[in-house]
Design goal:
alpha+beta, eleven-stranded antiparallel sheet, 24 strands
Length: 733
Amino acid sequence: MKKVKLLILSILLIVSIVSQVKAGEGMWLPFLLEKLNEKEMKSMGMKISAKDIYDINKGSLKDAVVSFGGFCTGEVISAKGLVLTNHHCGFDAVQNHSTLDHNYIRDGFWAKTNAEELPNPTLYVTFIVRIDDVSKQVLNGVTAGMTEAERQSIIDKNAQQINSSVKKESYQSSFIKPFFEGNQYFLFVTETYNDVRLVGAPPSSIGNFGKDTDNWMWPRHTGDFSLFRIYAGKDNKPAAYSPGNVPYVPRKALSVSLDGVAENDFTMVFGFPGKTTEYLPSTAVQQIVDINDPAKIAIRDKALAVIDSFMRKDEQVKIQYAAKYASISNAWKKWQGEISGLKRTNGVDKKKNYEAQFQKRVQANPQWKTNYGTILDDLNAAYAELKPYGLARDYYLEITSKIELLAIASQLNSLVKAYEQNGEKGYTEQLEKVKAKLNDIYGEYNAEVDRRLFRSLMEMYIKDQPAEYIAPIAKNGWADQNTHDPGITILEALCYSVSDLPSADKVKSHLLVADPKMAVAAIKKDSAFLLYLDMSKTYNEKVAARLNEIQNRINQLQRTYMQAQMEVMKERKFYPDANSTLRVTYGNVKGYNARDAVKYDYYSYMEGLMEKYKPGDYEFDVPARLRELYQKKDFGQYGKNGRMPVCFIAANHTTGGNSGSPALDAYGNLIGLNFDRVWEGTMSDINYDPSICRNIMVDIRYVLFIIDKYAGAGHLVKEMKLVHPKNPAPKGE
């Protein structure tokens, strides 16, 4: 009986561990799908093969997926290089082309011909040509006793040799990335196209409908898409922008399904997820929930309140700060959902239970006990040391990144450094780069908004953290009141009334045209510049030095812990954390229970959009043309049973960077465009839970409806291959 009980306990333990990777969880490398995932994917409903997804010898789905600008994903949807991505991914391009006279943010933009498509000098798309496992070569010469610096030096040297000798075309590039905390390394061969032109974008009232209120929420009714086109040289190879370039002809363009999805349909998302940390120990997750996320949320609360107060009363400020506001708000709301989701699903306790299972196995095996017996204790001790420095880091980075004056000072500091290191030659070489950066900053800068941000955020910097982490100039200047205006500190007056930096004209037309020696002398005397230097010095000396030392130790321990998990928990199928490389995630269409007595369906329709409609509202206004189409039920071939589908959800494991990723059906046809996750499941970056983790996609039929019926840009739809996979044509047709 005793042996039987032990056997049952053993089986239950294995089942528990295997269940740690749930259906829908994981961001998988496409070249390993055939080995690791194909069987499961087909059992969930996939009708194509792994080779249809990733093949280096012929066109496959990977050849239709691009890294869009290095921050989002896009997909090729026509033989003429038409690329679809999210509205929020293309927003910077739309914003850069917008003026008060041609407000494409408000009104949308649609090119009627190739000649009308708008170039974007800094925008690019990157294709993945192939992926190779180079772990053995990269780790050659690495030994267990090395410091992190010694280890990294050998890895960098090996990687450089591999990149220099890898087989690739002259117009291709390659890079190597670490996986599983640096236990494995993979090489990516890429092709990058730098001539990418804006083709179309709906107005923000469609592309960002619901704005901040609906962000991260379900149900959604957002047409979050924009269209671009890749241009190439006449040989179809990458080429710098030229009016003589021609539309790129892809190896593969996605077919577009008009059939939509039903509950439990197989779905797949293909893209470039940015960053996840699924294998953190429980102590790290506890700090995120209790300390780091709350601090960052509080800082962004203040910043958003300031910017919003100006945007609501000034159209020019709204144009200048729209992208910044959206970026700040995005993470702010996500972190709130992350905390809520981790608490609701007992994320920390689940990690502790997993660690207890891991530790029990380690202690029962002499070799594992020797190698890994103290790994969790060591991690706990390291994170305890990290705690105060991690909080100080978040305060410094969050606050300084929201005050543009400090960004301006940072750019000028690079000029000072260049002059001090290489004299006038170094200064001159750096000057053009600085001018370009400052043009970008000042182009989206309002001195009064920035001053109010400074007043609000510097108060938190000074009052909400230990004195040793506060720059002396900031501390002293804040303590003194300005006698001319008791409501303003000396620090604020020095930075915004005395300093030249808030004035674009003074900096660009006077300071940067001066003799290098005189310019550097003037910069070094500027009061805002001196504050920036003091804040930077204080952070680097009091926080970063110690933080980096502890973080290096944590990195080493985390790598060992990752190796240990893969060795000890062999029943578990591990996937690497996201690191902005090409991944596939898959799942099924399904709703979820958001909270007590609240259950969500998996589809949203235009009726819901109209129910949210508030005439003239910043977030929920609806264009007259769209209201007219709805009233007439004029949905064309894109509606279904007299209704217009808008968005749907599924259990695909996505994160930032997956924005714009194609949502594909069982046959690999485009059915939607990934753009968000549900608020209750944003903790999926740390702890995926299938009960509430859902990704949100705009239905491709709504995208086509907006392009064709709303915008009258049917010529773009004609470029695409539309299919009906659920209702195939009879044989012979």
